[in-house]
Amino acid sequence: MRKVLGINISHNCSFAYFENGILKEYYEEDRFNKIKHFSPDENELADFNYEYIVLKKFKNIIFDAVVFSSHDRGHLQLELPIIKHVLKQVKYKKYHFLSEGHHLYHAVCGFYFSDFDEAVALVSDGGGECAINNTFKTLQSIHVINKDKIEPKYKFISNRRVSYFNYKEKFNFEESNNGIDYTVSNQGKAGLKYINYLVEAGFKDHEEGQMMGIAAYKNKETNLDKNVLEIANKAQDETLQDFLELIDRVKKYSDCKNIILSGGYHLNCSNNFKIVKKFPEYNFFVDPIAYDGGTAVGAAYHYETYL
User: Residues 294, 115, 259, 270: is their CA dihedral positive or negative?
Assistant: First the structure.
């Protein structure tokens, strides 16, 4: 019996335990340590003395593989020390870590939970995957996936993550490499654009859900700040348009009618509903762990199925 542990070491730190390709247990560390959206970093780890509560559940298991996922923070600078620290606790030396696998793992997680034999996975988030050096991040991607292989087809990558407000000249060009199409831009899209509107509206980090919710009150009687309502509504409308442009690309890569939505942006139930209504010809499935926690599932299942 093969036993594989997937571990996400970005925010929403999570653990996915597979036996023979089947998910048996899934946990998120913040449910136990009560640190919301817990992410292993230099402050919370306290010089890497932090002991993961969830790992105690696996103390008697001998793993065949331990697979890590993360948003890209610099492998040598932070990810590698965290990985080594975790491996000491599970008493395991070998590991697999694909530093550029963040969007790939979102796509695989969604596919694992779906009933599809084949699908097109659309991933939108705030830029968890490093695309070109440490400056450009992947904000949106398209993957064609079935039970035998997964193929990245398109990526929208941007340097908007580095400094959102300091670009005077706009650029936006397309190119292809190794069978993957790229749009390279200094403009924000979907998840990242939403994050920046969040800041503009005065919300705190990880409060996207609140802003999504109040957007519905724009034309209703309410005591909510009208300026905040305008920004929330603008964020919903503009990021929906960003996603509609992404889905228009699907026909270029596949005639499959099964669509998976993953990545943190697709916690947006209101816009997900609008997407489903606008494209009745597609069968949509929303990843139940669309945020970074799900990449632990994606990492382990990818290792077992596609490598």
Answer: negative
